[in-house]
Amino acid sequence: MKTEMSGALRASPLIRGAIAFLVLAGAAFFMGEYHNDVYRKLLLWITLALGYNFLFGICGQVAFSHFAFYGMGAYSIVIFLFQLHFPFPVAVLCGIALCVLFALAVAIPSTRLEGFYLALATLALGQLFIVVLNEGGSVTGGTGGIASYRLPEIFGYRLRGPWYTAVIALLVVATYAVLVRLDRSWFGRACRAVRDNPEAAAAMGVNVARTKVIAFTLTSALAGVAGMVYAFVDNTVNPPIFGIDNAFLLLFMVIVGGAGRHAGAVIGATLLFLLPFWLSPLVGHHQALVFGVLVVLAILLQPAGLVGIYDRLADRLKGLSAR
Amino acid sequence: MQDFFELAVGAAASGCVYGLIGLAYLLVLRPTGIINFAVGEWAMLGAFGGFVLLTQYEWPYALGMLVALAVMFVIGWASERLVVRPLVEKGAPLLAPILALLGMVVVYREIISTIFPPDPMPVPYALGMGRLELGPVGGSYQSFFTIGVTLAVFIATWLFFERTVAGKAFEAVALHRRAAALMGINLSRVMALSFGAGAVVAGLGGLLVAPNTSAYYLMGVPLAIQGFTALVIGGVGRVAGPLLGGLLLALAEQLTVRYAPIPSGYAQGVPLVLLMLFLLFRPTGLLRARA
Lengths: 323, 291
Hints:
- The radius of gyration of chain A is 20 Å and the shape is globular.
- Chain A has a two-stranded antiparallel ribbon with strand order 1-2.
- Chain A has helices spanning 2-11, 13-28, 33-58, 66-82, 88-110, 116-135, 162-184, 186-196, 198-203, 208-230, 244-257, 262-283, 287-301, 305-322; strands at 146-147, 236-237.
- By secondary structure, chain A is an all-alpha fold.
- The longest helix of chain A has 26 residues, at 33-58.
- In chain A, α4 runs antiparallel to α5 and α4 (66-82) crosses α10 (208-230).
- Chain B has one domain: ABC transporter involved in vitamin B12 uptake, BtuC, CATH 1.10.3470.
- Helix content of chain B is 74%, strand content 3%.
- Chain B has eleven helices and two strands.
- In chain B, α2 (39-56) runs antiparallel to α3, α2 packs across α8 and α9 (220-234) runs parallel beside α11.
- The longest helix of chain B is centred in the first third of the chain and has 31 residues, at 2-32.
- The termini of chain B are far apart.
- The interface between A and B is large, with 36 and 40 residues.
């Protein structure tokens, strides 16, 4: 009986996904207003970290543009909906198309850049995005951004409170499912091969440039979708939210959790997002310093991230029980 | 015309600061292969060194500058010892020290924002306020001081690499690490010195720019981007590369602010656009390395 159950669970990722969604979404209904807000942002960070982990951890591209695409998604849905008055589905499709086009425009010439040069080119892109937001006049709302809009009604219903949190839970589960499936496909293996040894990958028949472009465009589009969802969390979009500090934070989340592992992205995002909430009562304003030291220590002492520690413990336990 | 010369002197002074930051990248990059994004924060630390020694303690400028730069050398040297060396010795991929130094960006900045209030802090001019007129060319004392000091630093660096045995050792490490080690060059000393020298040069850039911009805990990242742009425009192959790149970048920035028919806020985008264009279309920079 027991083995049958676990067999069924292993066989149907759809059911597992549904359970994960119900648990994540259901939790929101037991939380107050404030905790719902924190919880939504946590789920969004996890979504971003999962996508960024695919780009950086699995495909080996250090890019600082991920957060700019998150902002592009958020700004585009707001501008398409409330300034150009597109219908909702059209606005969503246009937002995704915009992110994909920009990602392709960046990714195709960037395949010539190696290692950290890509990081600096995309860092410049991220900064340029902020400059454009600040100077965009009435289109982007300038330094103040755009505020006081509301999620439009869909089929006569307006999602709010925990119901909107459920939408974000769906986003996390869907992103996770897409990335895990992709990781286990030939494409995921091609990405890892490109990361570990591009020459060898090319010799094995992997199109290195195309693999990089697809990974970059896909993860950037996922970030754009997350941004669209974010736009209705605070019902305001403004330049500082999408600044370069958060792009660094995203990188640190993946490193601390364990680059290249989906579980690592989840752990890293959860830990680094919640850390300030725990630390600030203890150390006040010094929490950012503690945070920086932690990141450096993680790179120095535990390059495989927190997931690496878990793996080692699990191995040791297995060794004990085998003995 | 007067207007243009005024602009050119100002641009040359800021270009020299970008050039110094670019040189700081270059000094670390050549022997180690590490792109050290923390140079912007080193410049910020240099500016705060100037604030403490020159504004708070009112030391004479030359003494304050020397002590601040000595402290910068220790900071650069310690960064290499504590953050970079353990990773290199473990044989970690090159990306690991780069990311660790990126983490140090947060550490340096937060140390400063913990110690000092979050306002811009004043740093005095080297030669006081005042203008110097040389025929049609005029500018502030600080501009000419910045240009003079930067030229001296670049000439000294060039002489070091071209004319001294120690400089040749740095070049040898840049060319081929293993062969250099086999020839009896102490790799770890070269690495530590390159970080120390990079911190001194970056700190000098921060100290020179601080009278105009004030010492501010968020000044690092923009300087890091401008310095890297200077390096990419000029090319990493030659010592003069970052200086040429810095001057061109500053001139492009100033001309955009003065003459281009776009909102002045977009001038912040000039280094970013130049950086992307050069990385994509001419990643070797304008100056080619000598064979």
